[in-house]
């Protein structure tokens, strides 16, 4: 922090806040060992009942004590009392029925992010499940193989609910994908990246007034701080999810090897793309293959976030501990994504993510809006005809140097243009979230199928979302 002017009360408050923040950034409240704790893989949830057409799952949302930082106990809010929640693995075309019981002291809403879900099961922000209640969510899973996730979506408190633990993987498999020679079993590894801040007593520190977005100083992968993972000299498939409330990533390997991107939010790409730097905004997923087969045994390779200062880049470490032959491969042709073709005439809509000035809540004087409006669950901002292709212009109208990952429920989209140019190589697949830096714009082609009803579109900085950067649209 540079010069501090003692001009008035507001300046003083700002200056003091900045001081606290920079000190906290320099030294984490609790000292945590790095690259010492082994990576954990979230358990796959077993169905409680199985029939020919559907699997039923029972999930209890509860508070629990979990040792996240070695030697400390943290109270978390978790699906089945664990952070992150158990992984739900489903087959395309085979329905999942999830009975969610809320044993927490706050209301919750559960949403499958990237799911093609009927409106009454999609987790509309006001479809609250109160403490003690159970709600049944039905997921038809009529969609291609993809790495989705389920997380809380309660109006005004999504950020805190997710921060305290309410998030897990939801993985859809299909025959096409299973027939490919990609790494499988123990070599198919989900990784959720989350940052958190802890108090000295081990509790999670969440600032409910932090409308800019809450970031932490401790990096968790699958709920483990700066973990290490033992690997052998072969290929691995990593399903990487940015599950942070407000921290974007740019992923890279410390040995300079490429990340071979095979999939996006909505499943496999048509063909793999090797990249050295992979941006991953909040809620985005990237499926990558990493090939350790030419790496000498004994090597230690870091997964890095190159958006950070050098001393904060390392996220986790791969220790190459043993030699193993590799029968997996990455085919040059992965899948037919079934892309849409652009019709001669098409309806276009613009969704502008903005910071607006308003005295609606008194202080602070600015709010996050879409097309100048705050979220109102009773107001529909668009009526979109079922089955019709539309072009949506999603843009970050700036004022604040903030990244806004724009997310649309119900349908995946194709990015047609990013800032008037073709999309980035690794974005040429189905997406449900597009990262928009200050002033950026994405033109996407979208078509809603299967279900009518009310859905949401919002920024996936969860604190922006909670501060009303959300719209309701209706598929009619
Ligand atoms: Cu990841 Cu509206 O959600
Ligand atoms: Cu979603
Ligand atoms: Cu935002």
Structural class: mainly beta
What is the architecture of the largest domain at the second tier of CATH?
Sandwich
Q: Kindly report the name of the CATH homologous superfamily of the largest domain.
A: Cupredoxins -  blue copper proteins
Count of beta strands: 31
In DSSP terms, counting alpha (H) and pi (I) runs of 4 or more, how many helices? 4
Radius of gyration, in Å, reads: 22 Å
Q: How many domains would you count in the coordinates?
A: 3
Under CATH at level 1, the class of the largest domain stands as Mainly Beta
Question: What do the pLDDT scores average to?
Answer: 92
Instruction: Tell me the strand percentage band.
Output: 35-45%
- What is the strand arrangement across the widest sheet? 12-11-10-14-19-16-17
- Based on Cα principal axes, name the global outline: globular
End-to-end Cα distance:
52 Å
CATH topology of the largest domain: Immunoglobulin-like
Low-confidence stretches: 1-24
Helix content: under 10%
- What does the main sheet amount to? 7 strands, mixed
Structure description:
The protein has 476 residues and is mainly beta. The protein folds into three domains: 49-178, Cupredoxins -  blue copper proteins (Immunoglobulin-like), CATH 2.60.40.420; 185-322, Cupredoxins -  blue copper proteins (Immunoglobulin-like, Sandwich), CATH 2.60.40; 347-475, Sandwich (Immunoglobulin-like). It has four helices and 31 strands. The strands form six sheets. The chain has a seven-stranded mixed beta sheet with strand order 12-11-10-14-19-16-17, with no helix packed on it. A hairpin with a 2-residue loop joins strand 11 (218-221) and strand 12 (224-225). The structure holds CU-O-CU linkage and copper (II) ion (CU) (2 copies).
